[in-house]
Amino acid sequence: MRPALALTMGDPSGIGPEIIARTFTHKDIVEKARLIVLGDPNMMQLAIEGIRAELKLELIRDPEESSGEFGIISLIPVTDIKPDTFRYGQVDAEYGKAAFSYIEKSIDLAKKGKVLGVVTAPINKESLHLAGYQYSGHTEIFADKTGCSQYAMVLCNQNLRVIHVTTHVAMRNACDMITESRVYQVIELADRVLKELGISHAKIAVAGLNAHASENGLFGHEEQSSILPAIEKAQKKGISVEGPVPPDTVFVKALAGQYDMVVAMYHDQGHIPVKLSGFRLNPETGKFDSCSGVNFTAGLPIIRTSVDHGTAFDKAGKFISNEESMIDAIDIAVKMAVHKLSTKEGCPI
Description:
Largest sheet: 12 strands, mixed
């Protein structure tokens, strides 16, 4: 099976075009899926020239027109940004509008069954807001445009998988959002994701919110009022889940293989351990030697994975970026697409 996947270019002023171009130099990745880029031909050509790759652009109107050959980037033009006025590393409403248009196009193609999944390059939230789109990130855009109300952000790398109860909200608000129904919903999503990844007999851990998971109410009430009841409800449904596990040890246990996924209560509780285990910063060069990690949205009616890093405006245009996270994101999307083909016969949603 070689599923068709859409790659959105992300913010044109960031490293999205570059990491996509670098990905197409990996023959094994190109052979796993038919990759169709949604973006700007001028920006992609700049990226090809910048990394000095022997790649050719193939402009198409429909994913079915893609040759799928190694050495060729199949691209559906969505915007036409003028190179003479373009600048790397800039917050700009034009670039925010462009990034949003690539995402909209990808969702449209997925809904029509033209592609089986979407892999997204990073966007800049400030540019997005300047363009008039008041979303906090990809996750919320995809949820809104697909009419999905029950979803969660997942981060994973080769060592660790984490799903989040809350994400882009103020810390004070996150505590109020940890309810029994939401925690149970995320446990169910975690179980579904693990099955989609082909992991049988999966074991899930739920992190506590408070220090030491509150020690029976000494340091907070959320464990007793919201988290534990959700766990017990999931257990009665046959889900293999434990907790609440103290947050200072649950990720250590997951890294040791005791759990297949951790349910984190808030953004940084989940993001820090995943990035600590997947990113490697070279102390001598100040550059990342490794940027392993994938961000994807559980619960959507379409497959959506993403790199686990931002637009890196400080690196954009210098052509020194690492495509490792993009490759990881495509790998995960392929696994989920193959699962979808085998269970739903690839039918459009």
